[in-house]
Amino acid sequence: MDRSLLEAAADLLRKAKTVVVLTGAGISAESGVPTFRGKDGLWKRFRAEDLATPEAFGRDPNLVWEWYRWRQSLIRKVAPNPGHLTLARWETRFDRIDIITQNVDGLHRRAGSKNIIELHGNIWKTRCTKEGTVFDSEAEPAEKGLPRCPDCGAILRPHIVWFGEMLDRSVLENAFALSAACRVMLVVGTSAYVQPAASLPLTAVQAGAALIEINPEPTPLTEMAHLSFRGKSGEILPAIEAAI
Ligand code: BV8
Fold this sequence. Notes:
Layout: H1 3-15, E1 18-23, H2 26-29, H3 42-45, H4 48-51, H5 54-59, H6 61-76, H7 82-89, E2 96-101, H8 107-111, E3 116-118, E4 121-128, E5 134-136, E6 156-160, H9 169-181, E7 184-188, H10 200-206, E8 210-214, E9 227-229, H11 233-243
Parallel strand pairs: 1-2, 1-7, 2-3, 7-8, 8-9
Antiparallel strand pairs: 4-5, 4-6
The structure holds ligand BV8.
């Protein structure tokens, strides 16, 4: 690993009082959760239009639920990796560190992080399609058929932001405010393709933050990053921690 790059990242982070970490599917890859757009990514095998849009759910809620239950069964078996665990330890290291994640797998929380903004929802929560009440569904065994709201009997949907849906307004406002206020933004394991999440690093840089990217592949953000690590977050985040 490039020692001078590690030192430069450690130096930026040592001086920073406020840090934001934007994460994507890549941070969970080493836990065994498939990414979306890589070589073996989910969107290579499945069509987002059939599974992750409100129209798809309206057409065939059983199919959509089958897909989410399959993903739940994958995620239930895995554990947070050294990337998640390093970020969780950093909550006691910095005055303020927030994780803004596009992931719905809940692995940051399982790793012990507390300041987490889940931009796209959580696969372990459901929402009533009639009244909007959100329920925790982690404890429940994967069931067959359509889950129903215990209050009104309407169909429950995954509490996930699908393509073409608005992100929760207060969640998004908070994410943009934190991005505009941080001194360092780390962008970890995202292709930076999906909006509006991909605009958060731009907001941070325009407000004067230093951008550090960790990804085995270059992304549209690489050119604007102050430091770019080409590699796996489960290896690079602990190495940065050691350098700090
Ligand atoms: C909205 C739910 C307002 C599913 C997901 C502006 C311009 C262009 C398009 C749009 C735009 N604004 C809105 C859009 C449309 C759309 C969009 O962005 N489309 C893209 C495809 C162009 N956005 C929306 O629809 C959003 N809503 O804007 O509302 C609106 C509404 C209507 C009309 C107008 C406006 C809603 C977006 C939410 C989509 N929901 N998830 C589910 O999870 O079940 S998106 C999906 O992609 C994933 O869930 C994930 O959250 C997200 C981001 O992907 P990544 O996390 O980046 O994952 P990816 O696989 O792409 O990349 C993995 C990376 O990891 C790679 O770079 C790889 O190299 C790296 N990696 C691999 N291994 C490692 C690693 N890195 C580190 N370590 C490793 N070991």
